[in-house]
Every structure is written in structure tokens, then in C-alpha cells.
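Case study.
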Amino acid sequence: MVAVAPADSRRASRSSIGRAFTLLNAFGPDHSRLTLTELARRADLPLTTAHRLAGELVACGALERDDGGRYRIGLRLWELASLAPRGLGLRELALPFLEDLYEVTRENAQLAVRDGVEVVFVERITGRHAVPVRTRVGGRWAMHCTGVGLVLLAYAPTDVQEQVLGQPLERYTERTVTAADELRRTLASVRQRGYAVSDRQVTMDSLSVAAPIRGADGTVVAAISLVVHSDGAQPVALAPAVQAAARGVSRALR
Amino acid sequence: MVAVAPADSRRASRSSIGRAFTLLNAFGPDHSRLTLTELARRADLPLTTAHRLAGELVACGALERDDGGRYRIGLRLWELASLAPRGLGLRELALPFLEDLYEVTRENAQLAVRDGVEVVFVERITGRHAVPVRTRVGGRWAMHCTGVGLVLLAYAPTDVQEQVLGQPLERYTERTVTAADELRRTLASVRQRGYAVSDRQVTMDSLSVAAPIRGADGTVVAAISLVVHSDGAQPVALAPAVQAAARGVSRALR
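After joint prediction, the assembly is written out as follows.
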């Protein structure tokens, strides 16, 4: 699962702002520091254009240069991004509730929102001895296999659900649900119970229980989950804690 | 203390990228959702220009519009920013150590970096019953009064120190050090002891102990702190835990 820019960003690529974001989109989890040559190649821009745009982005603080001259995403961009209501804004409100969940289990408490047909992880609190998870704050994942993804998909607009159900569903483990019909039934059961369980669908040693966070108008805007060792985990026992935390965040959002 | 853009961003304001960042800089902690009119006024741009730039930024995902049509910082910007080595990158490495500090005290564990003559808070883990702190993740503060600020100033280049010492030092409480000579002595003592103590210099009920985080080349790149109730706090007892955490993060950075 790689971070991809929204389709719209490509449409805007003719403008200088659009090209600046093409340049910024060249950075990724495995490419957090880039030379000018790497930057130009990954953004598919001529070296001179990349050089000029990078210079302007450095002047704005959106990019920084390290001691070796390589470019990296700048602190100023991170400061601006801390104002994103669906990013750090939501995260600040949710943090005390994530901490409560973490205290209960010493495993992983996660917060995610939907972007298109994927989930974006906004926060994760993890214990030292917690089951290893494959997610990263700021990272994207598929919806059909993760606990938060199943919640966000269950309450997503119909066209989003149909888009996900209409495309091949990637298999991560032997337990991943990849049949559209079975996924449909799962989503119905999530809506009925008010929480989702992803049992060894992402890795064979983990299980997650997730619940919806609702905005002021009642629509589902985010999801919160606990990811624990699958060995001996009791979803039915974990669900009330996760649902209570989700209700707490929902209340804080009003 | 308000979030201000680096001086360089103003110089670039003629270009379209520069103006786009002028528009983004209109957002702030108390202005996270803005109408087009507010956006134009705060960015000091004509309405038509603001409208065009905002449209391009929405197309890139840097801005989003809420149900009421107001603009807000977009999730895509936050995703990009999660790649900033001095933002979430550092934060990911430091998080387990911050959690350890939090476990010890159930108060506030903080992580900050220097930007110019101010500190920017990158992370804060706080307990429900912790002493209230005035900082915000993504927020800026003065260096002369905060624990992390004193550490970052003590190890900053001489020109940065002289710049801070040469300007009026704002008083937050009756204990805030505002005399340049006294601050100079404080900084010398921070370098000698290897940690800083801010005793009721920000609020009268809090005390912080901070220690430096060093990069691979040995230079100080960040600071970590504990902020506790000043009542009965023993900085000498807290310092080893904070220093050990700082050394742990420094090791993780290599």
C-alpha cells in the first residue's frame, strides 16, 4: 500500500502550485530525504524546473535542506498541517480516549479517517510489548481488511462502498475477506452491532476491534480501534471499551 | 505567542507558490476554518486571487471545504507533513521514550525542536490529571522561559543566542527570567549540568525539566521534557529520567 496523491492533484499539474505539489508528492515513507536529481526524477519534472520550484518551497519553509544538501519536508508544512481538523485537530480531541484504551490493554490504540477508498491513520499509541502492527501515522491502508476500515466502509456513502466492492480485494493473510458478497454481509453486521472485528485479516497474530466516531450531524467521520494479539483475544469483551471511547470522542467533537 | 511564518516566506510572496503559502498561513489555531472572505482578508489578497488560489489548493488536497463551504487545511497536507523528519519522523522515534516518561509521572512529556528563535512543539503526551500546560502540538513558544527552550537555546549557534538575548524577554509569571545576564548564566548552567529546569516561569503551577536530543553528528537537534505540578516537584530527581529518555531518542536517531 503506497501513499498516492488524490486524482485531482494530477489534473492541477499544469499550474505552478500544482507542480509544487507534484514535487512535494515525490516524498514518501521510504523517500523522506531526496537529492535534487531524485526529486526531479520522482516528480517527472525537468531538473531546472525542479530546482526552481524546490527553491521557492524552501523559501516558504515547505521544504528544508539537510547538511548534505538533500531536501526534506519542512517543519513549517508540519506546523500548518497541525491545523488540519481531520488530522491533528481530531487527534488532539481523541488523544485522551486513545490513552484510556491503551491503559486498558497496553497494546495498540488507533485513530483513522477515510480518504476516498482508503483509510489514513491519524494516530497510534502503542506499547513496547504490543503486537507489531503494519500501520504508520500518516500512512494509508485498504478498508476491507482493517478494523477501522470496515467501520468507515460500513458507514460510507453507497458509491464508495460499491467502488470498493467492485474492485479486486487484496489478500494479506489466509483470513482476509476477499469475496464481495462476504464483505457485504460483514458491513451489514458492523452497522447492526455498531463495531467491527478484523480477525487476523492483516497479520496472522493480530486482531482489531473498531467503532465509529460521529460528527455533530451524526455522520461517521472517523474510527477508533484496539489492535491486540489475536491469541486469546475476546472481541466481545473489548468492544464495549472501544465503543465507549468512540462515543467519548464523538461527544468531544460536538 | 502567535504562529508566524518564517521571514523568508514573505520574500517569496511575489510568486504564485509564495502567494499560495500566504493563503495557507492565514490559518491558525483560532482560525482553523475560514470563509473565502476571511481567507482573503487575513492573507491580504484580492478576493478573486484568493478564490483562484484556494481552488488550486483544494485540487491538490492542501485545502478542503467543509459542509458549510468554509475552507480548512486538508488531510493531504497532513499526510505530506507526516514525512517531515523534524516533525512526525522525529516524533515516531521519540514516542516510546515519551511514553516511558509519561508512565513514570502521569503528567506531561513533551518533544520540541527549534525554529529560528522559537521552539515548536512536536509532541505532547498528557495525563488526565496532569498539570494544565499552555503548549499545543504544532504550536510555537518563546525559548527563554520553557524547559525545552532553555535546552535548545543553550546549545544553539551563538548568533541565535545573541538574537534572543538582545531582544526584550517577555514575562509570563513573576518567576520568568527576563534579564539577559541572568539568562546567560542559566544557559551556562544548562550546558554544564546537561539539563534545564524551568521553575514556574511559564505558569505558577508548573515546573519542567528538559534534556537535549543529539543527532548523528552530536549536535543538539531537539529537546524532551517533563512538565509536572511545581508543588513538591524535585527537579534533581526527575532529571535522570529525562536525560535517559533524551539519550534513548539520540541513539534511535543514529
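Observations recorded in class. Confidence is low (pLDDT under 50) at residues 1-13 of chain A. The longest helix of chain A spans residues 85-105. We will return to this complex in the next lecture.
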